[in-house]
Amino acid sequence: MTKRRSFIQQSAVLGSGLILAPWLLEGCASGESSQSSTTEPETSSSPASMFFDISLAQWSLHKSFFKGDIDPITFPTLAQEEFGISAVEYVNQFFKDKATDKAFLAELNKRAADSGVKNLLIMCDGEGSLGATNDTERQTAVQNHYKWVEAAKTLGCHSIRVNAAGNGTEEEVKQAAMDGLGKLSEYASQYGLNVIVENHGGYSSDGHWLASVISGVGMDNCGTLPDFGNFCIDRVTDADGVSTCTNEFDRYKGVELLMPFAKGVSAKSHDFDAEGNEIHTDFVKMLGIVKASGYTGYIDVEYEGSKLSEKDGIKATKALLEKVGKQLS
């Protein structure tokens, strides 16, 4: 997720007369993009020939969730019936007041189970800075995440995704983040849960910095969630509110550095060419890096573009992952 709290709104080119690119229409025609509610749920999110499985990040539908067009409780069913994806990754922003709501979590579990969908993790934002250099502020952030550890356990997830953010020098925030992540990981270990960090802006988008933080924590249940397209370290916003990255870490090197600690991978996508390739990230090169690390877990679809609708963007990303996954497997 690229700065989920402040994503850039781009001009939409969709309309009732939109003609989809041939590669996307082929996916729809072959039944890869949707599944009837009466169809038996798939037991796997991906073709057996691929070295990874596919999951769906809830953030891919963030505009629809924020507008209230989709009820968060329906997400696992939607993932299976609309996209044929049988594993999901939640975002706490869409059910921020439900972390301790037993009835909500039970219903979410039921819908996932009824649809043959596996709950993988909860992406947690807005709970404070785990890399805060102020001890009290950092400890509060650690404790704020406890409820999400417990919610993730209830949902049968393996991890919560957190942010290693803080104000100060690189070394100051590094030491603080190691302390905050270490304490949260100790708590999560009691529940058999992982605490994983995404490259998510600031120092955390520096692959060397984040890898050194995770190495410094030195706990088996503290790892990473490498994101293909979120390596902007510094950015500026002009008077019109347009944000521009001024210091970006090499995405391929960044993923390579973070993969040894990975307990999940996020396939960020924005725009596609006529052949269905993502124009900002070489998926063949990126998935080659993932495979070379020995990773065989889930790779999520995380569409964040504007030129395609959210649903079409998800289908396009899934189709690309399947195409390249088969090619490399």
The number of E-state strands comes to: 10
Q: C-alpha Rg, in Å?
A: 19 Å
Q: Give the overall form.
A: globular
Largest sheet: 8 strands, parallel
How is the largest sheet built, in terms of strand order?
Answer: 6-5-4-3-2-1-10-9
Give the proportion of residues in helices.
Answer: 25-40%
Given the helix and strand composition, which structural class is it?
Answer: alpha/beta
Uncertain residue segments: 2-43
| Average residue-wise pLDDT | 89
Instruction: Give helix and strand order, one letter per element, not per position.
Output: HEHHEHEHHEHEHEEEHEHEH
What percent of residues are in strands? 15-25%
What does this molecule look like?
The chain is an alpha/beta fold and 329 residues long. It is built from eleven helices and ten strands. It has helices at residues 22-29, 62-67, 75-83, 102-114, 135-144, 146-155, 170-189, 207-217, 251-258, 283-292, 310-328; strands spanning 53-57, 87-91, 118-123, 159-162, 194-198, 222-225, 232-237, 243-248, 265-269, 298-303. An eight-stranded parallel beta sheet has the order 6-5-4-3-2-1-10-9. A two-stranded antiparallel ribbon has the order 7-8. α1 (22-29) crosses α11 (310-328). Residues 2-43 have low confidence and may be disordered.
